[in-house]
Amino acid sequence: MISAELTIIPLGTSGTSLSNYVAVAIAALDETGIKYQLSGMGTLLEAETPDELFDAIKIAHEAVLSAGVDRVVTSVNIDDRRDRDRTMTDKIRSVEKKLG
User: Fold this and answer.
1) What is the pLDDT of residue 25?
2) Digit-coded pLDDT (tens) for 6-15
3) Residue 81: what are its φ and ψ, rounded to 5°?
4) Mind listing the domains of the chain with CATH numbers?
5) Beta pairing partners, 7
6) Per-residue confidence at 71, pLDDT binned at 50, 70, 90?
7) For residues 84, 88, 89 and 90, what is the CA-based torsion angle, rounded to 10 degrees?
8) pTM for the complete prediction?
9) Taking phi first (over 0 means left), then psi (-120 to 50 degrees means alpha), and beta for anything else, what does residue 12 get?
10) At a CB cut-off of 8 Å and minimum separation 6, what does 40 contact?
11) Which long-range contacts (CB under 8 A, 24 or more apart) does 89-92 make?
């Protein structure tokens, strides 16, 4: 299972709020069927293959550009663990166990 953290930042918008652009990116991810978890600072993604992951990232990136901005900065952190099949939820539970 591949986990990734995605942040897409549109530049040159008319205001400081980005929630409309986040909503556009999330709607695009919904169309892909990829599993995701929205957070206050980015979106966590979960995919079976690198192609599935990169296709979803591209779709979200392009959706924000299509929303009327001329420049977008997209950052991605990827955890591609191949020795065990662990989901985002598994990783959270592992830490929670250790916290007691």
Assistant:
1) 98
2) 999 999 998 9
3) -90, 125
4) 2-99 (3.30.70.930)
5) 75
6) very high
7) 20
8) 0.89
9) left
10) none
11) 91/3
